[in-house]
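The instructor's notes for this session suggest beginning with a concrete chain rather than abstract definitions. Hand out the sequence below and ask the class to guess, before any prediction is shown, which regions might be ordered.
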Amino acid sequence: MDRRRLSYDELAAERRSTNQHYGQRRHPIGVLLWNIRSAYNVGSIFRTCDAARVEVLLLSGYTPGPDRHRVHKTSLGAEHTVPWQRYDDPHQAIAAQRHAGHRIIAVELVSNARPYTTVSADDFPATFVFGNELVGIGEDVLADCDDAIVIPMFGLKHSLNVAVSVGIVLYKAIEALGLTASRELAERRD
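After discussion, reveal the predicted structure:
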């Protein structure tokens, strides 16, 4: 088995162009960020959303957009490959996603939240809502969600970095949809 690290040229040969990327079917997943403070977190989330090929990334409240240098710098250009929209009011973003047929699922430490590992194909299409790094998702936004999932904490801290949480949830969502890396690689070669 070949275990050598792939060169930049080998990775670039596998990479699709932006036109090919937008032309392909996206996963039925939305991400809504509400009042995220850190531009670096938002840039990292753009990159994760690109990797997971989400349908849309929704920025709401005072979440910074790609016009901020730190978002652009951290995203490494993913703002050009991820469809994104700005909503000052998160309820409007939720209404738009619900109108598009999405279930709205909060990712938050709340009572009656189910483990993130229970996400299944029946949950999709879905938009996952992530909140502020300090206070989480506002009560009024939580009330507008259809469901809630939680990533269990086994240590002394009560939460993960929001960008890390997005990565965990998106890759669980991809797994729940029955998508695999081997299938994706086969599609790329066709």
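Then share the key points. The longest strand covers residues 27-34. The domain at 24-189 is CATH 3.40.1280.10 (Alpha/beta knot).
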